[in-house]
Write a structure and sequence with these properties.
By secondary structure, this protein is mostly beta strands. It has 3 domains: 2-62, Roll (SH3 type barrels); 65-124, Nucleic acid-binding proteins (OB fold (Dihydrolipoamide Acetyltransferase, E2P)); 128-185, OB fold (Dihydrolipoamide Acetyltransferase, E2P) (Beta Barrel). It has strands at residues 2-3, 12-15, 18-28, 36-43, 49-55, 59-62, 65-76, 79-84, 90-94, 110-116, 119-124, 128-136, 149-154, 159-163, 171-175, 181-185. The strands form 3 sheets. The chain has a 6-stranded antiparallel sheet, with no helix packed on it. A 5-stranded antiparallel sheet has the order 9-8-7-10-11, with no helix packed on it. A hairpin with a 2-residue loop joins β7 and β8. The chain is elongated and about 75 Å long.
């Protein structure tokens, strides 16, 4: 147990049986009232925002979280198998922890996974992925209005919108958070 005064932004707290990541932690001393800490925290599993006021002497539990780089190996049902790059141990991580970005994950890519006492609690892909276009309609000559986009399928099976000049076999950089086309990658 720690005092509320020891909490910092980015800490993960075990609070009311849930794991919450501290986004903002401010010390407030309003006029003639007692000082307190105003915390804005995000639930690690659901993503829901929680606001709470801690007394300065209130006891809190700061969770011990280990974050490390892992290499994605393959998909196994509702889980993804990742390997620790140093010990070569393999772990099954639930797909849900990666969110919608999981559709841009290809084998061999390094991902970041956070564990709290042997249980995976957070997973994160790189901010962008370089993927090959496996299918797209050919562009029609003269059909080049400003910022015109067409559908394309990438090697992971995900469908994205790309500019008209992109063809099958081209490599493109995709923002994993939004699924948006960023640029064509030169080979």
């Amino acid at each position: 147990m720690s005092k509320a005064s020891e909490v910092k932004n980015g800490n993960i707290l075990r609070f009311n049986g849930e794991l919450l990541q501290v986004e903002e932690f401010l010390h407030r001393t309003p006029g003639n009232l007692r000082a307190f800490y105003q915390a804005r925290m995000r639930n690690v599993k659901t993503g829901k925002l929680v606001e709470y006021r801690f007394r300065t002497d209130e006891e809190v539990t700061i969770a011990r979280v280990e974050t490390n780089d892992y290499q994605y190996l393959y998909e196994d049902g509702d889980a993804l198998v990742v390997m620790d790059n140093t010990s070569y141990e393999q772990y099954n991580i639930p797909k849900a922890l990666f969110g919608a970005a999981v559709r841009f994950l290809k084998e061999g890519v390094n991902v970041i996974v956070a564990f709290e006492s042997e249980e995976p609690i957070m997973a994160q892909l790189p901010s962008s992925a370089e993927l090959e276009i496996t299918y797209t309609e050919p562009a029609v000559k003269g059909d080049t209005s400003t910022n015109a986009l067409k559908s394309a399928t990438v090697e992971t099976g995900a469908e994205i919108r790309v500019p008209l000049f992109i063809n099958i076999g081209d490599k493109v950089k995709v923002d994993t958070a939004t699924g948006a086309y960023v640029e064509r990658v030169k080979s």
